[in-house]
Here is the input.
Amino acid sequence: MTAYIARRLLATIPVMVFVALFVFLLLHLTPGDPAALIAGDDATPEAIAGIRQKLGLDRPIWEQFGTFVMNLMRGDLGTSIFSGLPVTTLVAQRLEPTIVLAVSTLAVAIVFAVPMGVLAAWKARTAIDRVVMGFSVLGFALPVFLIGYLLIYVFAIQLRWLPVQGYRPLEQGIDQTARSIVLPAFALGMAYMALIARMTRASMLEVLSQDYIRTARAKGVATIVVLLRHALKNAAVPIVTVIGIGLTLLISGVVITETVFNIPGLGRLTVDAILKRDYPIIQGLIIIFAGVKVLVNLLIDISYVFFDPRIRY
Here is the structure.
């Protein structure tokens, strides 16, 4: 098991090196002069030259890359062009809402989707199965922003149970935070639930057809024990895999969801940075999102050894 974990850790190094190279080349692959794009159409040559000097574009490219890598190793993601604040400071200011939204979405998706998938597999080819699969198709078909507006209209405008938009920080109380995050979490979690439920059903159907499941049933083992202890555990590897794959949906969905619900998180920061062409912020956020994706995939790969003992050997 130690060798397997070590190999997975080493495999993350070239991925992050490639991400760092891509992020560095982001400025140089942009059509036109990045400094001129940032400065605007009415900028003077002196202003453009100042931006080039501030971004380090006036130095040789190998020197720029070396400085970029050294700064990354020190945890320095650069300085915002427009606000003048370090990117790490801006990220820290926006981190809490995004983490709360992501964790809430994961919790909602897993808590609802896995039982739905298990139930659909147990009641395969029945009305319950068709309802669950119909929900899965609907979750994929409807875009996140449409689900968000529908939830706002029903639960915030018509029923007035929850706030329309905004985010309440944890320091104001967990109950206030929960009220402000429940609609965004469900809006973002719908597609995620659909993905997990479909994979859970497919994986459970394959396991439920195995001989040892029929043997357990023949011995009179309770259905709930067969489903959870025998079937779900052995079907967990593909389910955990799709949870990791769905993280890509989660990261992209955060940008849309935070915009719809006016949540001041990393998604809104990304949109604002793109609109302003604030390249240091864009580069820093790409590295952070890529690092989170690599870390989650690493944790999922490591979790395989606990669900399938064969992987340890």
